[in-house]
Amino acid sequence: MLGRKPGTNVFRPRSPEHPEDETFPGLLLLRPEGVMYFFTAPRLAQQILELRLAAAPRVMALDLGAVSDLEFTALRRLIDAEEQLRNNGIMLWLVALNSEVLRVVQHSGLGERLGRERMFFTLEQAVENYHKGSSGSSVTGSTT
Fold first, then answer.
1. How far apart are CA 57 and CA 55, in angstroms?
2. Is residue 90 part of a domain?
3. Residues 22-68: pLDDT tens digits?
4. Distance separating alpha carbons of residues 92 and 62, to the nearest angstrom
5. For residue 12, what is the domain's CATH number?
6. Could you list the residue range(s) of the whole structural domain that residue 57 is in?
7. HSE of 9 in the Cβ direction (CA atoms, 13 Å)?
């Protein structure tokens, strides 16, 4: 779970050492790390579920910048999670996908489902878009 260092564009894991870090009501920022594959997918899914239930977000943004590869089982879990979230009125956004992870997402159908509107180059763009949407009637994304 991430927060933003005040006055910066630095996002870092939430910790008692930095209670001043900014969070955004209704927006859950998460950053999994490493390779997402069949062995890590169930544990990661459980951790994300627990964080989602505790935060009750309108939007859950996954910063995948530290994910080097997305294996089929993990991708399947991500597709299922997006559907579950959507059915619960929560939007999933993907952020900072490297070229390999982006290719996998785009070829899975998830990329089409999310569209360019729910994928971002940076967390800063996602937060900015969230703030714009919070004052309006809907929240969408953009990779501009």
1. 6
2. yes
3. 999 999 999 988 887 777 777 888 888 888 988 999 999 999 999 98
4. 8
5. 3.30.750.24
6. 2-134
7. 7
Per-residue pLDDT tens digits for 86-134: 999 999 999 999 999 999 999 998 999 999 999 999 999 999 999 998 6
d(CA 81, CA 61): 12
Q: Quote the crossing angle between the two packed helices 72-87 and 41-55, to the nearest 10°.
A: 20
130 token code pair: 């969230």
Domain-located, residue 46: yes
Strands 2-4 and 11-13, how do they pair? antiparallel
Query: How far are the Cα atoms of 2, 44, 82, 136, 138 from residue 133, in angstroms, in the given order?
Result: 20, 28, 19, 5, 5
Please give the tally of structural domains in the chain.
1
